[in-house]
Amino acid sequence: MTPGNGKRVVVVTGTDTGVGKTVTAAALAAVAQGRVTVVKPVQTGIGGIDPDEPDTAAVHRLTGRDVHQLVGLAEPLAPDVAARRQGVAIPPVADHVAQVLALMPDHDVVVVEGAGGLLVRLDAVGGTLLDLAVQLRDLLPAEAALDVVVVARPGLGTLNHTELTVAALRYRGIEPAGLVVGSWPAAPGLAERCNLTDLPRVTDVPVLAVLPEGAGLLPPPEFVEAAPGWFAGQRTR
Asked: Which amino acids does the record list as binding substrate (predicted)?
């Protein structure tokens, strides 16, 4: 398993929305060993006449892994806003933590994909993915570990956004396990090439993987076969 081995929860967050968290979660699930499941605490944007494909459905399509979506909301907004506009109550982060912990006895790896960035509110009382990660760290059984993976864009602006995300994690006592570049272009420009070197330099967090643009459109067998290569040789600082 990348980034670590053994029984663990891997929390996947991003520097923003649309950075490649779902494909990263799928890639991590594809390369994990043992009994693996993927959890999406809150999914938005799945209503209306042209709903988005739920992230858990995309992960299952690409990898065949077991998936769990805990809350689904119609509008493509931050979860607390979408719930308020929809007029529904959503559970607090602590309830999501309890459901993740309940999966641990029957799984070796639980991948948890956030919504948007690290500080997007997942409930109506201000709970964020960062709060979820902190609670998991404090409540996981002794034989299990927590990894937090930060997914970043390759282009301009990514250094600032990634440093801010890493700083927020460290402020709460969580050292990120690594960075993933979520969508590497087929023809990278100067900014992308420099950022690939500078991301680990400015954050002091290793780059675990570089995922090619369009990876989520691969046929499932090709995705599963290719995923280990995206991680191979990428542990750079």
From this structure: 44
Annotated binding residue at 7? no
The answer on whether 10 is annotated among ligand-binding residues is no
- Is the pTM higher than 0.90? The answer reads yes
Contacts of 41 (CB under 8 A, 6+ apart): 70, 71, 93, 96, 112, 114, 115, 122, 129, 132
Instruction: Name every residue whose Cβ is closer than 8 Å to that of residue 113 and which is 6 or more positions away in sequence.
Output: 12, 21, 22, 25, 38, 39, 40, 55, 59
Check pLDDT > 90 for residue 5.
Answer: no
Q: State yes or no: is 7 an active-site residue.
A: no
8 A C-beta contact, residue 7 and residue 35: no
Find out whether 54 and 46 touch, Cβ atoms under 8 Å.
Answer: yes
4-8, 81-85, 205-209, 221-225: the lowest-pLDDT one: 4-8
Q: Which of 40, 107, 121, 153 is catalytic?
A: 40
